[in-house]
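In response to the reviewer comment on reproducibility (Comment 2.3), we provide here a single inverse folding case reported in full, input and output, so that an independent group could reproduce the run without further information from us. The structure tokens appear first.
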């Protein structure tokens, strides 16, 4: 009988030792309070893979705008970020912020009126510390600061923390800034730096920056009262590489937007450039080559704006001497259209206007905005502004609405016959850069074009009342491509 017990004991011991230990999954999210659809891509237009039950454990793979790619036990797909929650026992995963804009301001607090600590350039990668509403806190060169979430991509994984600036310059942004011999307010004053003066950065400590005065002597400045910029020089080894600035960027088989998508690459990744075809780079992937649009990457340390100058078909400076009014629709108590997901038209028109303004200024134009903040401006004042300065063109930016939420597309309107050619040039180039339904160039009885003596157009950049289209047209990537199309149309019109 004892021998039988021994046999049973050894059999049980063998069974338990042969079973591998269960590894705890690093689930950092879970499905919220309702069942949700897991989709093949980051948008409501993508097919549904499966339906996930409330509370299902998820692991984050990457982010794309308001969408998160997640893993479950059996699936990998995309969910909208407002449909998930963070478990109480989740271990936070390291995440990296990738700048999608040139000279993106890093601010002391998460609001647009806070002091500017530094600036990021297109493709810069920094660690993400936390998120708060429409802002993300980052760590950059021994500092913590905030950047607007709409101008960055977020990807999983660590970023290398810059402990000291490399070839950076510090520019004073106040009338007078005291120089000190040590990084604290009690240190001895050794001079005064004036507004606009620039210094080579040697080191940083907390909120202080050490600068070079004359190649021999140094001083410390309080960094809140200046801004950083990166020298444009690049290492030779980086001169033939491009950095992706958007998640889920398409790599195509041919150099056009109708080419087959052969791969998708992600923000922060770098690829060798092996050729150029118009506005497209041919890049080397691991086992093949493909084409990526130059407006979704940064190259050779150049910003997107610099890429636009380079690839403008020899039309650099064609707008010199031209004055253009950009009219961001609505503002203040006039919210304009409110989208299915709560987007206010007044907010996205202002963001779009800022991007378009930067592009046109780089081409030599003088730009006047009818509003530069969330303020109400009457239609009469908008039009009279263009008349007062005798503007060469008036561009009014809007996002559309319809009681039928199925209606989609972009339309460009004119009223007078002298406005038709400008409208056609802009619309044709716009539709080459965005993938919306083409509603064409149409006459429209809108005050800002009807009462305008200038060559004026009103552009409706898609429907906020269509849920899928709202998701697309409120993204930073859409605004970049749309403003590039409008920019190209204006260049074409004034270039002939």
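Designed residues, in position order:
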């Amino acid at each position: 009988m004892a021998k039988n017990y021994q046999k049973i004991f050894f059999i049980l011991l063998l069974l338990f030792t042969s079973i591998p230990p269960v590894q705890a999954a690093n689930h950092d999210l879970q499905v919220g309070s309702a069942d949700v659809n897991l989709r093949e891509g980051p948008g409501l237009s993508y097919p549904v893979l499966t339906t996930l039950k409330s509370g299902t454990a998820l692991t984050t793979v990457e982010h794309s705008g308001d969408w998160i790619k997640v893993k479950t036990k059996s699936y990998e797909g995309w969910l909208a970020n407002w449909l998930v929650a963070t478990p109480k026992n989740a271990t936070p995963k390291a995440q990296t912020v990738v700048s999608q804009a040139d000279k993106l301001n890093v601010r002391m607090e998460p609001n647009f009126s806070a002091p500017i600590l530094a600036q990021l350039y297109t493709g810069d990668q920094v660690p993400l510390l936390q998120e708060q509403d429409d802002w993300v806190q980052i760590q950059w060169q021994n500092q913590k600061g905030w950047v607007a979430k709409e101008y960055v991509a977020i990807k999983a994984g660590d970023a290398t923390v810059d402990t000291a600036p490399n070839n950076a310059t510090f520019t004073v942004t106040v009338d007078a800034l005291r120089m000190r011999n040590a990084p604290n307010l009690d240190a001895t004053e050794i001079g005064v730096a004036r507004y606009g003066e620039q210094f080579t950065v040697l080191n940083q400590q907390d909120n202080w920056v050490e600068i070079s005065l004359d190649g021999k002597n140094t001083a410390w400045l309080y960094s809140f009262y200046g801004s950083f910029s990166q020298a444009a020089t690049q290492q030779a080894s980086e001169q033939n590489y491009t950095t992706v600035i958007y998640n889920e960027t398409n790599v195509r088989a041919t150099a056009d937007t109708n080419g087959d998508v052969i791969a998708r690459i992600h923000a922060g990744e770098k690829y060798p450039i092996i050729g150029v075809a118009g506005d497209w780079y041919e890049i080397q992937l691991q086992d093949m080559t493909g084409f990526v649009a130059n407006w979704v990457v940064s190259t050779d340390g150049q910003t997107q704006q610099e890429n636009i100058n380079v690839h403008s078909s020899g039309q650099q400076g064609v707008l010199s001497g031209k004055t253009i009014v950009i009219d961001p629709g609505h503002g203040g108590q006039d919210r304009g259209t409110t989208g299915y997901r709560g987007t206010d038209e007044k907010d996205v028109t202002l963001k779009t206007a800022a991007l378009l303004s930067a592009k046109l200024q780089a081409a030599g134009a003088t730009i006047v905005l009818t509003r530069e903040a969330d303020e109400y401006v009457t239609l009469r004042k908008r039009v009279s502004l263009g008349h007062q300065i005798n503007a060469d063109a008036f561009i009014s930016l809007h996002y559309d609405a319809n009681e039928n939420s199925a209606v989609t597309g972009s339309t460009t309107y004119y009223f007078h016959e002298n406005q038709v050619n400008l409208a056609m040039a802009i619309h044709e180039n716009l539709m080459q850069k965005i993938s919306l339904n083409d509603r064409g160039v149409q006459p429209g009885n809108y005050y800002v074009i009807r009462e305008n003596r200038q060559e004026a157009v009103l552009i409706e950049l898609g429907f906020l009342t269509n849920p899928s289209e709202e998701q697309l047209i409120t993204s930073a990537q859409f605004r970049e491509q749309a403003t590039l199309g409008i920019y190209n149309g204006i260049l074409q019109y004034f270039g002939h």
